[in-house]
Amino acid sequence: MQMNPYCSPVCSLQHQDFVLEIHVPSDLYLNWGYYCSTSTMDVELRKKLVKCYIWSIALYGAETWTFRAVDQKHLESFEMLCWRRMGKVSWTDHVKNEDVLLRVKEQRNILHEIRKRKANWISHILRRNCLLQRVIEVNIKGG
Q1: Quick one: CA torsion of 98, 67, 115, 52, rounded to 10 degrees?
Q2: Which residues lie closer than 8 Å to 14 by C-beta, 6 or more apart?
Q3: pTM for the predicted model, two decimal places
Q4: Cα angle value 75/81/82 (rounded, 5°)
Q5: Considering only CA atoms, which of 65, 66, 72, 68 is closest in space to residue 109?
Q6: pLDDT score for 1
Q7: What is the dihedral of CA 91, 79, 53, 8, to 10 degrees?
Q8: Residues near 95 by Cβ (< 8 Å), separated by ≥ 6?
Q9: Nearest-angstrom CA–CA distance, 132 and 136
Q10: With b meaning 16 or more CB within 10 Å and e meaning fewer, what string describes 115-124?
Q11: Beta strand spans in the chain (E)
């Protein structure tokens, strides 16, 4: 069975799947780099393009992920890679992340977005009457 490289399995998040999720959008972003870093486009429009096209692929199924500290660092690094590319800031320029965020008028919020998605997903599951709801609420009686 061949897996779509943009959609990792939702049920289980292995560390290899996480790396795949981070590297695929980075490669995709190289193609979008022209559109997101062109100076003829408004900065707000470029930020919306990044959040719409790049983050939607990178965060596919994020509401079911379990994070370790290293996974959060990878996501924050990916977010800064996006903002650096959009602001045309090379890593060899030795510009601090805070300065890059000031240039693009943005804050770090990829982890906040994931937490928001998780909260929406849990509330969706708890509204339904299904096995997953009973597992989450520990309502299954043992034999």
Answers
A1: 70
A2: none
A3: 0.65
A4: 95
A5: 72
A6: 37
A7: 110
A8: 84, 89
A9: 6
A10: eebeeeeeee
A11: none
DSSP labels, 56-99: HHHTTTGGG----HHHHHHHHHHHHHHHHHHTT--GGG---HHH
- pLDDT of 8 reads 38
User: Which tokens go with 28?
Assistant: 């995709």
Region for 90 from its dihedrals, namely left if φ exceeds 0, alpha if ψ lies in -120 to 50, beta otherwise:
beta
| pLDDT tens, the chain, 143 aa long | 344 444 433 323 344 444 444 454 555 555 666 666 666 778 888 888 888 888 888 888 888 888 889 989 999 999 998 899 888 888 889 999 999 999 989 999 899 999 998 888 888 877 877 777 777 777 666 65
Specify the amino acid at residue 5.
P
Q: Which two tokens stand for residue 77?
A: 């690094």
List of residues 6+ apart from 17 with CB closer than 8 A: 8, 9
Encoded amino acid at 122, one letter: I
